[in-house]
Amino acid sequence: MDEVNASRELGVRLVQAAERLKADFAEAILPFELSVPAARALLLMDEPVPMRVLSDRLTCDQSYITRIADELEGRGFIQRVPGADRRVQLLKLTRSGIRMRESVFAAVTANNRVQLHLSRAEREQLDHLVALLLGD
Amino acid sequence: MDEVNASRELGVRLVQAAERLKADFAEAILPFELSVPAARALLLMDEPVPMRVLSDRLTCDQSYITRIADELEGRGFIQRVPGADRRVQLLKLTRSGIRMRESVFAAVTANNRVQLHLSRAEREQLDHLVALLLGD
DNA sequence: TATTGTTATACTCTATAACTATA
DNA sequence: TATAGTTATAGAGTATAACAATA
Fold first, then answer.
1. Which nt sits closest to B49, CA to C1'?
2. Between 3.20.20.140, 3.40.50.300, 1.10.10.10, 1.20.1260.10, what CATH number should domain A2-134 receive?
3. Once rounded to an integer, what is the mean pLDDT over residues A108-126?
């Protein structure tokens, strides 16, 4: 019963650590005046990507991608280009989108607690534990 | 540079694991028709507690505690009782609040991934790694 | 009939600002 | 003057439902 409580508290601290990571991310992208989801989306766009695929990668609803795409298009970082299947829109980085993506990437990696606070061995341990937690 | 990427992806998975924990919590309390923050607050109320103290424990603004207290009071789970300092309101569990708190506690511990998926040794490892991540 | 993307709308969690009543 | 709590409001992230176009 004490073990039960310790486990619950560990869960609370794990969530706290994750919130810290998210706060670090938000702070890192502050200079770019992008919303967090838009910055996340940028990082997931290498090749031109169907909006539907992006909603899978972000694990969010398709309708939310419309919103993110509007933001990124409004800032000139992507274009919507029609796909072969004419229902599909591909999101494609513009020149300035490519530069912004690189800036975001540099900012968030420079600021990464996981790398700054953990040794390689510790990261491997953590990776394993996280996999156990996520495993069916 | 590959290590940089691996660290970032590990961070993403860590956040995913935390969201899973949060989703488990939300699912566990579903039968009780409590909001997540109200359920969290319940778990933090043992003795009658000043609203201000509760806002520290939940790390949220005081104004949000008013909202949570309204919900819990509306459901009959707490009473506001005046403190010695007459600016202060203590939140105090009612009989039915005590029972609800026990139900919530039982539901969320029965459902705890950290305990279900990790051995004691693994939990200790995780605790250590989380402390490193949170450390200044 | 099923799927892609869009629109409108709404919900949850949470903060900020302005206020009151005490201290 | 500073603090506890309240109120009203707003903003971020996200989902749902209904819809048009296409498959």
1. D4
2. 1.10.10.10
3. 96
